[in-house]
Amino acid sequence: MTRASFPWSRIGFAVLVVVSLGLGWWGLMLDTTHVPGRTWYDVVYHDLQLFVMGADPASEGGGLSWQLQVARFLAPGTAVYALFEAARALFTGEIRRFRERRARGHAIVVGQTDAADTVAAALEAAGHRVLRTADAAGLAGVGLTGATVLYACGDDTAEATANVLTVAEAEAAVRRAGSGPERLYAHVSDPDLGVALQARHLSCAEPGVDFFTLDVIAAQALAVREVRRILDAPGGPTPVTHLVVVGSGEFAKALVVGLAREWELAGEGLRLVVDLTADDADHVAGELRARWSPVARRIELRAVPVLGTGSAAAPDAVYVCHASDGASLRVALTATTLWHGGPGSLVLLLDGLAGLTGAFGTEASRVLDNLDGRLRTVTTRDLLADVERVEARAHDDMYERIARSVHHVYLRNQLERGVGWGEVPAMVRWEDLPDALRASNRGWVVGLPARLARMGATIAPRDGAPEVVFEGAELDRLAEAEHELWESVRVAQGWRSGPVRDDDARVHPMIGVPWSELPESNREKDRDVVRLLPEILAEFGLEVVRYDAPRVPELSVGV
C-alpha cells in the first residue's frame, strides 16, 4: 500500500475516539468516587454521554480532574468532526450524482462484468470520461441524454439478448428525450448471434445501434498488430511464415480469421501457414474454411490435434489463447516445444489472470528465466486500447468495419493487378486514406440495403448454401445503382462535373452522366463492385440471400 492511499484520516479519527473514551473513563473514575452506589456501568454510560455533551458529572464544572477536563472537550469535538465528515460525504455524493445526471460528452458503460471493465478501461485509456451503471435502471442517473456513446456489457450468459434489450430501452429513452448518444453498442457473447444481429443491423441501414463480440474485436486487433510486425520485420518477411494458434475458443477462431484477412495484403509470393492446435481442431478448421472466405483462400490452415506434431521446425510465433486462462498458462509453462522460437515468439492471452501480466510482461525472465524474453502477454483491455480514438468509442462500428473491408478488397485486387502502394491516392491503408475516400466507402455501406432491396435480396449469415450471383439485366440494374450512389456521395462532398478530372478542384467528368451513357469501361467498373459484394460480405461471415428463394445449406457452421 502506498503512502498516498493509506487511510490516515480514518486512523486519526479512531485514535481520537479511543483517547476520548480512555480519558473520560479515567477522569470519571477519579471524580465520581464520592457518588453513593456508583457502578462501572454508570461510568461507561457517562463516558459515552461525553460525546453528546450530556454527562452529568462533567456538566457541573468545578474541580474536575485534568483527564475529565480534556475528555469533556475532546469527545464532543470528535463527534462534531464525525458529523461534519458524514455530511461532507453525503453532499459530495449528491453533488456527484447531480453532475453525472447533467454530464455532457461522456461515454456510458452498463454492466458489472469483465467485458464492461475492459471497455471502460479502453475508453479511459484513450482519454474519454466514462460513467458506469449496473443496469438499464440507472441510465438516467449517469446522464443518458448528454452521453455520446453507450456500451451495454451486462452478463448475457443466462439471457443472450440481455444487452440487446438494454440498448433497446436506451434507444427508446433517447427518442423520448430528443437527445442522447448517437451510437449504442450491445455486447453479444455468442458470436453466432452476434453475426446474425450484425446482418440485420446492416440490412436496416440505420446507423446508431450496433452489436459486437469482445473476443472477436480483440482478436482482430491482435491479428493486425502481428501481421504488420511480421511484414515490417527488418529484412522483410520470409517466403513462408509459420504460426501456431493453440485453442479453439472464440478468441482463437477470430484470431485465425483476422490473420487470414490481414495476410491478403501481404502481396503475392508470401505464404502463411497456420496450425490450429486443439482436440477439436479438425472440426473447427472445417467451420472456419466454410464460413470465412479469407481462411479458405489466402492461408494454409492445418488442424493439429496434438501440440508439437505440426512441424519439426520451430514456428515463427505461437499464440496460446485457450478459453480458460489456467489452461493457457499451463501450456505456456509446460509445453517446452513452444520455447524454441525467437524473442517474443510465445504470445499468451491472459484476461482473467490479467494481474500476472506485470509478472510476465516485458520482464519474462523474472519468472521464467529459461525463456529469455520469448514470452509476450496480451490482454483484451490492451488490445482495445491499442488505437487512440478521437471519438468516445472502444471499437469501430459495423459500418466502419465493412467500409474498411471494401477498401481492403480494393487494395488486394489492385495489388494483384500490379498497382503499387502509393501509386494512386487510394493505394494506402485505411488509416492513411483521405477522409473523402473513407466517406465514399461508408456511403457505399449505408446505401447497400436499398440497392439489394431492388433485387428482392437482403443480408444474412453464411450457411454454406450456394451464393447469390447477379447476372445480365439484374447485374446492370445494381451497377446503375452503384453509379447513382457514387455520384450522390461525390456531389454531397462538393464535387461537380467538368471535362477533365481534377481531384484538388473536386471535378469529375462522369458526374451528371446517366449510367446508360457512360463509357463501357466505366460501366464495367460499376459491375465489378457488384460482383465483389459477395466477397466483401464473406469477409464478415455474411452473404446475400433472396427473400423468396429456397435455401438448402450444405453445411451448418458457427463461428
TrEMBL record:
Keywords: Membrane, Transmembrane, Transmembrane helix. Gene3D superfamilies: 6.20.350.10. The keyword Transmembrane helix applies. It holds the Pfam family RyR. InterPro entries: Ryanodine_rcpt. Residues 476-544 form the Ryanodine receptor Ryr domain. It comes from the Bacteria. The chain crosses the membrane at residues 12-30. This is RyR domain-containing protein. It comes from Promicromonospora kroppenstedtii.
